Amino acid sequence: MSDPSIVEEDGSRGMRSGSVAGASTGSAAAAAPQERQQDRLILQLSFKPSQSPRYKYLTPTYFEKHTGVAAVYTSTPEDVEVIKTWPGGNGITSDKVPTEISYITPPGATGVQANKWGFQFKPEEERLRCIKLFLDRNQKLPHFVSPLETAAQLRKYNKNVVDAVSDYLTAIYKHTMDTLGRRYGDSFMASTKVEFVLTVPAVWSDAAKNATLQAAERAGMGNRHDLRLISEPEAAAVYTLKAIQPNHLKVGDNFIVCDAGGGTVDLISYKITQISPLRVEESAVGTGGLCGSAFLNYRFEDHVKSRVGASVYNAMKPRTRMMGLKYWDEYVKRNFNDEDQELPVPFPGLVDNEEAGVEGGFLVLTREHVRDIFEPIIKEVVELVEGQVETIKRRGGAIAGIVLVGGFGQSNYLYNRLKSHFNAAPPPYSERPTNHSIVEVMQPVYAWTAVVRGAVLRGLEGSMVVSRRSRWHYGTSYATVFDEEKHPISDRYWSPLWERWMVSDRMQWHIAKDEKVSERKAVSFHYTRNFRPGQSLIVEDDLIACDMDVAPDSMKKGLINVCTLTTDLNAVPKSLFTRLTTSKGIEFDNLDFTLDMTIDSASLIFELKVDGVPYGKVVAKFH
């Protein structure tokens, strides 16, 4: 019997080698581009309900503070429509709705129902805020989010995080479909296929992305094979790079997209590889941090407490406090541009205090006050952008521009600080700077809704990203023949089937951190497995990730179990198994197979293959 270098027995985990294979024939990854092409042809049909099904792309992008929804029909791709009316909005239009939900138990009822969401709350009412953040256990929570308080609210109504997110998305889904039904008619909507594209933060874990899919699926937005995920900064990049005039783009240019939202700031960098049609590749691994505009609100609140005293602040009526916070949020914060002027913030009923700067129910803010509130947050954003700039420069890249999107991305102060830091010349979209040390800073039109607008374009046109950078090392563990020069003797064990000393829990890394990966090519994990007669052909393997710069060669603490892959080998013809016999007459079957993994913008797709032929999907349970 041959002596393979990497083997395993009894259906346990193992792997022989990893290689990059071509796009999988018949795989979900390979089918996706074909579906998009077919959809575009069908979608160009008339809107009339009597015709064959048409498609509409709807894009919910739920931020830490707000959710936005946009829609587009493929026959009118230039008309991206953003939902602007919401329950509880009192007729006021808004591009986004607060990501907040509450539950009640109605009198005499035994069940729990979602009571209010979005704009429907009074200032003093209890609600679940920032619930999306809890989908990713690996991410640090902002100081103003209490895990204990959130957990207590969820337990009170027998809910978990995915339940709450799903309930919120259900409300979004129902309102969106109702709005479109009123606009276009129920018969039209009944004959129109709706496809959803959801956006997630670039720095989220694979488990968090999977939880998002679960929540959206339960909300009625389709099954996970129809739902599409795209990272928020990539969606923003789709919109903003298309908004830039073609004569402003050159092959080889790098653009840094800074998606500054309410809770997080996500960054991603792209290098132009082709102008028409526009194609880009990731030029630096996406980064992000908890330094969104919501932190300015909490810093302002702390500032007010320090000026008037915590006891006075806490004694304010809720409406008084909320009026001041709202004025700060909607006027001062959004319009501050470092001009030397006084900014009175209304706190009706607040007693005059000359020392604290309170007069006639107004707290006066000077330019220095607002600067002090902004500066720590601005510094974090600048450092994140600087990190992307330095990475690109180390690789010899030329940086053509920094594009600011998102709600916080509209800030004049943030724009001017970045422009000053990188010595960029105004105005946005001006002629290309001649000094290569200058990095231009841009604020596109519709910066706040760039993510939803970009996501519907992504759903409509397919991906313009030809390759991405892996945020992790990805690998699998395997068993191999014991080598006394490589392995500790304490790790060895005897294999009765291979009749060799073996060692397990060795690591082979198929994708390196920061390595270029393409959704058009699958990475193949090669396995060999042994099965005794009657043994189950359903096997499990763990996909392991590592965020260290240098990945270890064996299993150790600090590695992340991304998901468990369950593979059913019963569909594989028995003729492809090889019958082997040990020297003691023990018979067993051996099978070589591969699991192909495809990485797209925000998800992982797996498929089983034997000798290059697909034999079904692989079920991934994320941890």
Automatic annotation (TrEMBL):
Composition bias type Low complexity, residue spans: 17-32
Gene3D superfamilies from the UniProt entry: 3.30.420.40, Actin, Chain A, domain 4 (3.90.640.10)
GO MF annotations, alphabetized: ATP binding; ATP-dependent protein folding chaperone
Region annotated Disordered, chain positions: 1-35
InterPro entries: ATPase_NBD, Hsp_70_fam
Top-level taxonomic group: Eukaryota
Annotated keywords: ATP-binding, Nucleotide-binding
PANTHER family referenced in this protein's UniProt entry, alphabetically: ALPHA KINASE/ELONGATION FACTOR 2 KINASE, FAMILY CHAPERONE, PUTATIVE (AFU_ORTHOLOGUE AFUA_7G08575)-RELATED
Name of the protein in its database record: Actin-like ATPase domain-containing protein
